[in-house]
Amino acid sequence: MNLSGFGNHFSSEAIPGALPIGRNSPQRPAFGLYAEQLSGTAFTMARAENRRSWLYRLRPSARHGAFTPLSAAENHHKTPANPNRLRWNPREIPTQPTRFIASITPMLVNRDPETLSGVTLSTYAFTENAPNEVFFSADGELLFIPEQGALTLFTEFGRLDIAPQQIAIIPRGVRLRVETPAAAARGYLCENHGAPFRLPDLGPIGANGLANPRDFTAPSAWFEDRDGVFELIQKYGDRYWTTKLDHSPLDVVAWHGNLVPMRYDLRHFNALGTVSFDHPDPSIFTVLTSPSAMPGRANADFVIFPPRWLVAEDTFRPPWFHRNLMSEAMGLIGGAYDAKAAGFAPGGLSLHNMMSAHGPDVASWQAATDAPLAPHKLTDTMAFMIESCWPYRATAAAMADAQPGYDAVWGDFPKARLPD
Predict the structure, then answer these.
(1) pTM for the full model?
(2) In angstroms, rounded to a whole number, what is the distance separating the alpha carbons of residues 229 and 134?
(3) C-alpha dihedral over 187, 345, 277, 282, to 10 degrees?
(4) Residues 139, 163 within the same domain
(5) Among 86, 184, 227, 394, which has the minimal tally of Cβ within 10 Å of its Cβ?
């Protein structure tokens, strides 16, 4: 049974009677369980902003040895800030057995996890499950965006199954194991180092629309009582660290709180748009936002471009040409993106950093310029954008794989014809 509602305070127990009543930390928790609080915000945050959960587990999570650097999985070196527009082809599926953690490849990075700001956008492509490998990030919360192949996320709070067109949000510090029931899985992983994602304010839109809170679901309590050799890997300070356990750390029998993993189906997004003229700002497609210290300027926005009707009159309907203070990293989950006729495939990635001029390519511009303006529904499409107020730096691995000649997609626009 899944629990419905973004930001709600939930209670769940896998064994009846495991949750204490009327207090969080009784002297003797039921069944000899250990009470433990997981805090995703500072204790003194305002009640509306405070996120924490109480976990009741078979062993305290403190029961582990020292972490040591995992040199084989260190983060990739960041290159200097770069104003150039960049684009990448989809990753190839590995031909050798590859586990999820080993497959994570950071592509675009800004700020520093130690500043509690910025994001890291990675891709993954793996073929082999690791039943005794558990992972968590101390650097930020994780946003899973599968593009090919379903995922099963076994977390301390319970199990989440997601497939392409769905996402999962895993709070900072929550332990999980990632598996796929498919032969291979590929997608994107966004690590948000700043304020936790929340639903954006709707302002003049009113009370309804965009991503509705009830469509987000948290898992019911589930636990794993398994002994054996387990590897616990954490990301800390932009590096991976590892330690060994003699039991599965996914042993939470009951929990309550509002810091929980969540799943959302992007097809439930209620897209809004113009019913008169002009192309609306992409901010109306925001699913989740991580605010910065400046109101209205996001540390990270997760934005999608789903199937929708286009009805604007006397309007160039694809995204217009623009230069933007925000930096835009875009991926494609399925179908085609309406501003690019070729070169941007599902599983691919593009970057338009702050103030870099971009927009539709020549073929998309020509088609939209000449199109009869009857109502038209965009179908077979799902693109997303991680927009940030901080400029992205591409990693060395990303720069080595960037498409050559991306600038050429804007090279053949004809000059406007002025009257004599």
Answers:
(1) 0.96
(2) 11
(3) 30
(4) yes
(5) 227
Angle value at C-alpha 412, between 411 and 415, nearest 5 degrees: 110
Q: Please give the torsion angle defined by the CA atoms of residues 337, 338, 341 and 346, in that order, rounded to the nearest 10 degrees.
A: 10
pLDDT digits (tens, 9 = 90+) for 314-331: 999 999 999 999 999 999
On whether both 85 and 159 belong to a single domain, the answer is: yes
* Closest to 10 measured CA to CA, from 170, 224, 211, 220: 220
Give yes or no: residues 306 and 261 share one domain: no
Provide the terminal-to-terminal Cα distance of the chain, rounded to the nearest Å: 71
Calculate the alpha carbon distances from 166 to 163, 187, 264, 327, 411 in Å: 6, 11, 6, 24, 36
The two tokens of residue 208 are 């309804």
Range of the domain at 228: 3-266
Single-letter residue type at 416: A
Judge if 249 and 312 occupy the same domain: no
| Residue 345 within a domain | yes
Per the prediction, the chain carries an average pLDDT of 95
Number of domains in the chain: 2
Which residues are tagged catalytic? 279
Residue 1's pLDDT is: 63
How many angstroms separate the CA atoms of 322 and 259, rounded?
Answer: 38
